[in-house]
Design a protein that fits this description.
The structure is a single chain. The protein is of the alpha/beta class. The chain has 14 helices and 15 strands. The strands form 4 sheets. A 7-stranded parallel beta sheet has the order 7-14-15-11-10-8-9, with helices on both faces. The protein has a 4-stranded antiparallel beta sheet with strand order 1-4-5-6, with no helix packed on it. Helix 10 links the parallel strand 14 and strand 15. It is globular and about 75 Å long.
Amino acid sequence: QNISKPSTPSRTFQQGDALQFVSMRNSMRLMKPFSTAQFKLDSLRYEYVLEEVGPKRPKLLTHPHQKLHSSNIKEVFRYPQEVVAPYQTFSLVNQDGSCNVNESELPSFNPDEWRELYTVMVRLKQMDEVFLASQRQGRISFYMTSFGEEGIHVGSASALDPGDVVLAQYREAGVLLWRGAQVQELADQCFANASDTGKGRQMPMHFGSRRHNFLTISSPLTTQLPQAVGVGYALKRSGANNLPIVYFGEGAASEGDFHAGLNFAATLEVPMIFFCRNNGYAISTPARDQFRGDGIASRAYGYDMVAVRVDGNDVAAVHAATAEARRVALTERRPVLIEAMTYRLGHHSTSDDSTHYRPVEEIEDAALLDPVTRTFNFLEARGWWDKQKDEQLRASERKVRCQRLCLRRTGLVGLTGAAVSTRRC
């Protein structure tokens, strides 16, 4: 199928000549006469060469993956490090706010846009603190924080077009906040109240918003990857200049759907972004026990995909990497894999106590590389922010979050400030 013939055939077969060809992709056996001695499979982007070895007996000479030959047994055994060099980690801003590059090479945000990036990161952090406390108080049944991963959310979301479709896992609430979702909408979902657009049919943290092109999260691990390929293939066929981005953790990369998703995306040449949050732990399983090899980015080589590894605590680097991945995906019509290196400062969920499988000292050391602190240092070093403004922002965000939760709990939503002041929460 998808066979194109060269303009000058080297020989024309006689009627009745047949070529037996077993497709490498779907094992479908073809028995059909061909009129030329050479042909190309567009879907594989490799050329098969036919050579006549006898009257009316063509032979399949070259396999698409059989380009080179050797009789030296030691040459043909290849170790991973001989095939793919270790991936370097892309970074732009250091923890103290200084830059690794000339500032002209940073994302082209003006001071107000940098402050907006930081504001959403702080908003996510304050929301997590309030919602976590609400779960501990028994107000909601379940919650998952994003402590330490705020830079991934905001950095990647700010590089996307509003028409790009997001397929998330569990820790991408910041993507929704960046796209304009209100914290109250997320609270409605977590509390499963009358304003929940999902009508209380999902457990907490399973957000979704058609208005923000954010597909509803589902509990089964990694199912969103092959689904994202379908979204991307549909966008490709429609001619839209948009793509899907699918988020997952490094633990999800051990699931079969990870490999199925990458393989489908590569063979169908789907413009899309696979975004892996490598935060060091798949619930209680550390990365060293989860897989071997050079992380997740190195797996792209086996699927003929482009990949990049980025410092997930550097919001500027995440933005730049995602923007370039989007450009490559849309212009070259191919999938791109991003591996963002970060650390999960909080527990996996409110059902987990991570101090049972990792030392507290490790968490404290990782907290020194917090992305919110790094972004604050970057802004402060340029005179765009200071500690007084920061304290006011955090207090304001926390007050609004607590007030909205309090109003929702007491049923006072929609009342005026004067009416609310007559009752204590």
